[in-house]
Design a protein that fits this description.
The protein has three domains: 248 residues, HUPs (Rossmann fold), CATH 3.40.50; 132 residues, no CATH class; 99 residues, Orthogonal Bundle (Tyrosyl-Transfer RNA Synthetase), CATH 1.10.240.10. It is 44% helix and 11% strand. Strand 11 and strand 12 form a beta hairpin. The two termini are 20 Å apart. One of its GO terms (cellular component) is cytoplasm.
Length: 538
Amino acid sequence: MTRDHDTETDASGREDPRTDGGTSAEGADDVALDPWGSSTISDYRKLFEEFGIEEFDEVLPEIPDPHYLMRRGVIFGHRDYRPVAEAMRDGDPFAVLSGFMPTGDPHIGHKLVFDEIIWHQQQGGDAYGLIADLEAHSARGMTWEEIDEHARDYLLSLLALGFDPEEGELYRQSDNRELQDLAFELGSKANYSEFEAIYGFDGSTNVSHVQSVVTQMADILYPQLDEPKPTVIPVGPDQDPHVRLARDLSDRMRFFKVTEAYASFELTDAERSLVAAAYEDREAFAEDPETPRCEEAGEWLSEANLDALGVVVAEDVRESAVEKLTNAGMEPLRRRVRFLDANATDAAFDALVEAIDGEKRRYDEHIDAFDLSFADADELAREVEVDHGGYGFVHPSSVYHRFMTGLTGGKMSSSVPASHISLLDDPEEGYDKVKSATTGGRETAEKQRELGGEADKCPVYELYAYLLAGDDDEFAKEVYDECVGGERLCGGCKEQAAELMREFLADHQEKRAEMEELLDELDISTESGRRGVAPGDD
């Protein structure tokens, strides 16, 4: 969930101008999602196929006044962002949270996340920015003195860019008791074997690192402590494992699991898709379509053309669904919503039974309701849970942005000063770094005019698209078109970018200075006062 000082990418802009998820940096690695590693993601498109990240373009029309990072494809993917967009449109509560691991100076790559938090806050969201100091200490081996040194710089830049602390919350993991209490509760629903599978932990992994992961799960769900609400976590795609685990844990904490059902027996999700298809096609097999029987559905399903039904499952899934239907015999096949008792107290279970209107059937460990939609049932279960002391978590959502290419090409790293621009760099130093940056230009000016530049491979064009053009899409497009059309040569382009970077840094640092007094007045410590040694490498 946190962004540290080593970021990298393989994409820049394309004609509209947007970034192209199909291009990849020379020598890039295959897709790898390691929250603490430094692997390059060579093809963002693979993330859609391998990890279920959805293309952001699909949800973009549903967002009022989207941020330019969204419009230009810098934010390229999402996981379940629609509830956030809907809350935004309807004026309902929603939240945004992201964290920063203080392992080095904040740089222009971090600004992407700062901007995303601030934009969501300006759209009416409850905004949270956190310093992931426990993670920095346990996973990166930072001393507390080093952490304190950098924490203040991240907070000052976030404030200088427009975060409103009166309408949002800033905190350090190590100082937030509510967060740590939530992490303890979430830890009761997690086990070490899944940490091994997700993160590659083994017997050499220090326990503090494991604890820091559970703390990050608590960070992601922290905005919902007062009330359940859609929450978006803006991150790079390497942080997706954290988001997926947090979504799983949010389910495990719920009092009730709500599913669609068709008979008294339980179905897996894959089996449910088959039985749902059978129910929808009951006219084809039921002697009485008003009361189709499980046995009839099983016989039909055993011979059905699944491709024609648009259902893709393994053959053993079909066999298990058919077996369950056949064993149920003449039991009616009837759509209903099922409330499964996952963690409910007896009082909560009884209250849910009482709250369900219409026809219902109560069993020892579940309740079937026949007159509720799935959405209404899920909301009712959440209301009862919250009323009886539960959290009622809504699945957290996420948006994913591309990493920025280093100014020298390849990886952007704080260990290579020329590859990145710190938000603390002297404006003249920022100017010089841009002037020295690698470009996507041709070997000679003649070839540039003849063939055009390769803006899609140019770190300098990325600076325009991600930062220097600001909200001005026309300016970003003009730079792109002039480059690929051969009208813009690299020398003049870098000069313009360097001057804009100098202006940005000067303005940003002036605002940072103005925020010093405000930060000192806020209820967040920039000095932890902790003692201890950095954990060993795992």
